[in-house]
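To whoever picks this up:

The nightly regression suite flagged Putative nitrogen fixation protein NifT as changed. Nothing in the input moved, so I suspect the structure step. Input below, exactly as stored in the fixture:
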Amino acid sequence: MKVMIRKCTEGKLTIYVPKKDLEEPIVEMEKPEMWGGVITLGNGWRLELPDLPVDTKLPLTVEAKKLAD
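Regenerated output under the current build:
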């Protein structure tokens, strides 16, 4: 699924899922650099993100894979 990742004013990261009209904070990251790992959203969803360079600029739209609950 396509998701947009951006930084909020507080420096925290959020994800927006256009098809679901859903915006949630990222509450946990498997890898400190986020890319190529699994993240957990505030609503409990777990998404696997693609491998990208650590210095990738945000906001950015990427293809993420939703993992089973």
